[in-house]
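Render Por secretion system C-terminal sorting domain-containing protein in 3D.
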Amino acid sequence: MPKFLTRPILPIALAATTVAGLLAWSAQHAPLEASSHREAPLIADDPLADNTDVYAFRDPNNAEMVNIIANYIPLELPQGGPNYNTFGENVRYEIHIKNDGSKPNADDITYRFTFKRVNEDDGTFFNIRLGKQNLKATYTMERSVNGGAFVSLKTEGVVPPPNIGPRSITGAAGLGAPSYEKLFTDAIIKVDGDISVFCGPVDDPFFVDLGGIFDLGGIRAAAARDGVARKNTHTIALQIPIAKLQKGGKTGAQAANILDPDYVIGVWASASRQSIRTISTTDGTQAHSGTWVQVSRLGMPLMNEVIQPIGSKDRWNYDTPYTERATSEDYLSNPELGLYMAEGDGYFGTAVPGFANLRIQRNSLGQFDFGNGKNGVSALLNAPAASVAGTAFAKIADGGFAEYLLRPGKPRSVDILPIFHTGVPNLPPYQLANIKPAGQPLAPGKPFVNTFMPLIDNPAVPAGVGGDMLRLNMAVPTTPRNSTEFSSEGLLAAAVLGLTDARFNTTNTLQFIPNMDGFPNGRRLEDDITRIELQAVGGVVLHAIGLPYEAGAPGLAGVLGFRTGIEANDIAFRSTFPYMALPWSGTEAQGTVTSQIGAVGFSLKPEIVAAAQNYPNPFVESTKVTYEVATKTPLTMFVSDLTGRRVATIMEGKAHKVGKYALDWKPGPEVAAGTYVLTIATGKTVLQSMKLVHNQ
């Protein structure tokens, strides 16, 4: 009989202290510890269960549909063979939806996906050969409503293969498919009549300068590099009718207005594993048993990445949004990032020059200090009832939420906390300040957001209303993706228009302002959440609702002018569901060539050129490209459209010495607005390419 080594996933001490709670907790939601894009120590060791991003947005093509997307497996190398990434067999992937905060704290709808893999040709080390695929994945999809039993919606759902390269995908010795596009679109199916589903590899739609930001806030806008560019991820994408998400079964057209509170949903995703993995000491095979334990979750982006300190990251994943600890609210009310956006008094703003344009209000209206540990507007907790009547700052007994929002020593409980944990209500002061009398943030203003859906029965937090979810008001119309007013700044762009544009800033009438459908009202693929969240911590929301920056630089101009240098995805999104681009091919994904065939055979060479993402990007008239040459060489630089057609040659075989260079490229009138690729090469060897977004 084989011998086995049995290793519990739960640390022994934690298991001993929580066993009673685990037994009482249902197998559906038994949580452990871990979360996303390698955001927590434990999940960094378990990439197949790592939930990297969650998106929720009203469909731009069909106003009666909502898209919900959960991505897993971070930073996949497209060329990562021979065992390419795919979904894990021993993982429960779940998408959770809350549509009624007045119900007991549990999901109102849960979609569960489980996967299995088979080898069709186990006599080869290749993943694909002669029409057969190894590690071929299929899925089962189930749904639970109001905590009921899970009901199967689909079995043997097809997951497209990895986009290995042309010989494997379209070649006669491979699958012989017409194209990878055909394999991709064939995997989009309908279940339950009108729900579209896609599970499979895609281009990772997230974009951020990972290297710069995590180098102690080293923002480098003019030399930023997208750390997620040309990398893939695996997605579970759903397109669901609003009537199947809205708590009363209403369609989008039946909303009372574009901020109807009955159309707010909360979305989060998770991955769970069984608590015990057993490894055979005879043949190395593995078996899984025990209670299902949540090891990853994600709702609002960057919550675990930059809000939770490292000592709390794993524990944050032990909880669900319905059971979060009070410490999560403390971190949101005094976010660590705030320490680097103020000066003096023990703050560290001068130590992080990349945040120089982000300076929190320290004396707004001559009295309110939002520096970490200060009191913000918490003094209003004791304001006369008449002065706060009809506002969010009224006491809970009077129909407001003052005890939750106004916390002494926790200044960001008034803005960052509700954005993440309850959603933002359509009540003063959370309305635009354009028509408010000066110095009166509690006066009625211009409505522009309502994502408010508090959670009841949470004893861990004051008033029991907090829980991290991505909240979306499904009644808000969409901004056309081809509109000149569409902005990756999401709801912040809507606020700027609402405050400055004559179409909106002279009345408090409820109107649709472009980008009201953007983050943090849900999250669109295009939304630049890194920039938005940094600006929010920098106090821009407070300013918009009537708590302005004090006089002096950098102020509002500084925060609105803040740039990270990476503000768009490295490739255009698709125009139809599931909207994310095809996964990068393993033979085409490398952006920089560090080896080539030499005269005497294969040799490794150092990187010849280090090129920055162009800045600004997107651009209108011109864009600057900076690059560094490490080896004396002739360089060619040209611009192509997304079909590969060359539209401009910037230089051809121009000699370069070792050194740093910069050039401005101004496209001619023959170059229409659109997305292009700039390529740097020497001879026939491509050294680097980058995306250019040209607006007109």
